[in-house]
Design goal:
Length: 145
């Protein structure tokens, strides 16, 4: 059975003193450490969320810049392709013009050479005819003799 006397009062005071000492030496420092860790974790979490938000924003800006660069590159590529095609057409026209001029000059030279050859042959026709007739006649007289 429990006796209620003065020792109960001393036990109660001893319990309170122990509770106060334990609170001062053990419980309060542990609470402070837990609070510091909780604050640190909350700070790290907010830093991580901030970093994630910044990273997402930077990624969006990077992707936008990359898309713009691709569009610019496509425009430049198209412009250069068109310029190259125009230059190719100009070179082709110049080459065709040069070939036509060369062909016309060659035709003129050939016509002149043919005309000169024909004129030379026409001048020699009487001589050639006489030589041919002499050969023919000379052959017939030899076979008759």
């Amino acid at each position: 059975m429990i006796d209620i006397d003065v020792t109960l009062f001393f036990q109660f005071i001893n319990f309170i003193i122990t509770l106060v000492v334990l609170n001062y030496l053990l419980i309060r420092p542990i609470r402070d450490i837990v609070k510091k860790r909780r604050d640190l974790a909350a700070g790290l979490l907010s830093d991580a969320e901030s970093f994630t938000g910044d990273a997402a924003e930077k990624l969006e800006r990077y992707e936008a810049a990359l898309a713009a660069a691709r569009i610019d590159a496509a425009k430049i590529r198209d412009e250069r392709r068109n310029a190259g095609e125009a230059e190719q057409e100009n070179l082709l026209r110049a080459a065709q013009q040069e070939a036509q001029e060369f062909l016309a000059a060659s035709r003129d030279d050939t016509r002149k050479a043919v005309a000169e050859a024909m004129a030379a042959i026409k001048k020699r026709i009487p001589d050639l005819a006489a030589m041919a007739a002499a050969r023919v006649l000379g052959k017939k007289t030899r076979s008759a003799a």
